Give the backbone structure.
Amino acid sequence: MSLPHALLGLINYKPATGYELKARFKQSVHFFWNAGLPQIYRSLNEMKSKGWLSLTVQHQDGRPSKKVYSLTQSGREELLRWLSEPGEISESRHQLMIKVFFGNQSGTDVLAGHIKDWRDRHLALVRMYETDVPSLLERYGALVSSRGDAFCWGLTLDYGKRHAEMVVEWCDQALKDIEGLQQGGAASK
Amino acid sequence: MSLPHALLGLINYKPATGYELKARFKQSVHFFWNAGLPQIYRSLNEMKSKGWLSLTVQHQDGRPSKKVYSLTQSGREELLRWLSEPGEISESRHQLMIKVFFGNQSGTDVLAGHIKDWRDRHLALVRMYETDVPSLLERYGALVSSRGDAFCWGLTLDYGKRHAEMVVEWCDQALKDIEGLQQGGAASK
DNA sequence: TTGCTCATGTAACAGGTTACATGATTAA
DNA sequence: TTAATCATGTAACCTGTTACATGAGCAA
């Protein structure tokens, strides 16, 4: 369980409603984690009942009321406790790698098609990391920024970029290898 | 939903029981996907009721009977259909990156500790990809192997290794940056 | 007038994990 | 005699997704 802690971290920058939190996810950590609104609302309720959050209702004219959540002392403690805890090994469920693993059953043409797709998507991601994302982080950073925050966000950004680049390189090599296999020699029993 | 398809792929090499499939997962795709026994048994039942699998019960002396599943024609078709389908973008839920993102809230010492841990684990993974895993794949490959299968398995192996190497490199850079931040300049507002 | 943004949620379902239950064989 | 391996599963629970429900304001 970890979504509640991600929410604690975001709310700790600045109190927020569930709806706003959804948007903050999109602007910040959504490359590494995302969450739907129903799940956010559900989590906020649980967190409140654990005493991690306090709630202020803001009435608005002509719009639904806002439920603005803030961290309580106990919420702040829980966040720090979790952040200090050694992380669990994250399980990646990697659909494409399964398809690659069984690639001999689908045939190398199908396989090469998937890999080309994947390469394109990750190349686009690399571009995004280079152009769109920094400005996004900057805009988001403007809300609450300290130099330390910006530094940490930069680290995750760098990770995402390296990851996407690694994938592109792997795809290139794999496509070369497949070509070699198709031309070079018989690839059956 | 994709576990059933991974199971189809494994059974297609050779008929198997639920228990054996769990072991095969461990020997083959478990870097990219894993599954518990309850889930495997549940999936096998569903797959059978969809007509993808046929079942033979093998009685054994002094041991519980085996339920050996094989692919039906319809199962083979479903597997090929799924393998040809373009893959969904896999959502990685990356706990450590969340902790990095909020690293300024926990402090750079805690953060550096996590990253060191992670570096160690991935360095161990790199070593494993270099030594243990190839022999594992070979042993597994001996069961059913064709050159094409071995080739595809090698591709996933290469991906895993590249990934682990990339993580180690990122960790090294991040640790350097953190050090620089701690020495170089004030890291507050 | 069509669709987007703001703002709340509920209900049902799908997928994955953990705990519980059984019981024989075999190697340390 | 203790623990691991073989072999089956059920029940409960946690998490995440999708579909449904409401309703005002505003821009194209």
In short: The mean pLDDT of chain B is 89.
